[in-house]
Design goal:
The chain is of the alpha/beta class. The chain has ten helices and 14 strands. The strands form two sheets. A seven-stranded mixed beta sheet has the order 6-5-4-3-2-1-14.
């Protein structure tokens, strides 16, 4: 069985828990640590697990709302850590190198085997050193996770084909962003091809990967100032051909419930 739960998603911090079960064995992968350590520990307990039960941590890229407390976490719990070479080069300093023995380098298209869980990293267009997102599988069901990308590249579309569930960025509404108080350079960065997906772009991506067996979509990484859950739901539901209420939205503080893929 494969399931996942957002522990929080947004500019204030991102973390997603993915669990694969095979018999009596559970593998739990934490994707990103963009929360304060105490908050992350609390949310893991609220999810029915704890920090010591994690099999590994995967860091998608070096931005603070994703890498967050990763160094403090691995210092306290000695959890195996995965990230790209580019991400490691972006964050490594004397304090980080003390934990280099826990580091595993992730690469686009090179599968990571963690017991019954198979994680396949894929590159995304984002303004980070070497950002990676993940496709996770237990051999039967497939979950696609795609946030922090500026446009739905053909490589991303290929990576998400055939997924049964998606955690998909719907960061901003284009009109709200244009009218916002953000400075011009930040508007250009967010809306640019290396920034974040708008509702329209997320719907475009969803339209290119939807299929009859895609049963669940969780909208994620919504901007608190430049989007609303109702606007994200409207765009994604239209692309998927369902009702807006059928699209769930990850909350910055509470994330989501456990979702079976």
């Amino acid at each position: 069985m494969l399931r996942f739960k957002s522990l929080g998603s947004g500019s204030s911090g991102n973390a997603t828990l993915v669990e694969a079960q095979s018999g009596m064995h559970n593998t739990r992968l934490l994707i990103d640590c963009g929360l304060r350590l105490g908050d992350l520990e609390t949310r893991l307990i609220e999810a029915g697990t704890c920090a010591e039960d994690l099999s590994a941590i995967f860091i998608t890229h070096e931005h603070g709302d994703h890498i967050g407390c990763a160094r403090s976490f691995v210092k306290r719990y000695a959890t195996p850590l995965w990230m790209s070479q580019g991400t490691w080069l972006a964050v490594s300093d004397a304090a980080w190198t003390q934990h280099q023995h826990l580091l595993n380098i992730a690469r686009d298209g090179c599968a990571i085997e963690l017991g019954p869980l198979l994680a396949l990293p894929f590159t995304v267009p984002h303004d980070a050193r070497e950002p990676l997102q993940l496709r996770c599988s237990d051999g039967q069901r497939h979950l696609g996770i795609a946030t922090d990308l500026g446009h739905p590249s053909s490589h991303v579309v290929d990576a998400l084909q055939g997924c049964h569930s998606l955690l998909l960025e719907a960061n901003h509404d284009a009109e709200m962003l244009t009218a916002s108080s953000y400075p011009s350079f930040l508007k250009q960065r967010v809306a640019g091809p290396w920034g974040h997906l708008s509702n329209h772009a997320a719907a475009e991506l969803l339209g290119r990967v939807k299929h009859d067996q895609l049963s669940y979509v969780l909208a994620a990484h919504l901007s608190e100032r430049n989007n609303t859950p109702s606007l994200a739901r409207a765009s994604l539901s239209e692309a998927l051909g369902c009702k807006p209420i059928d699209i769930d939205v990850a909350d910055p503080l509470t994330g989501s419930v456990w979702i079976s893929v």
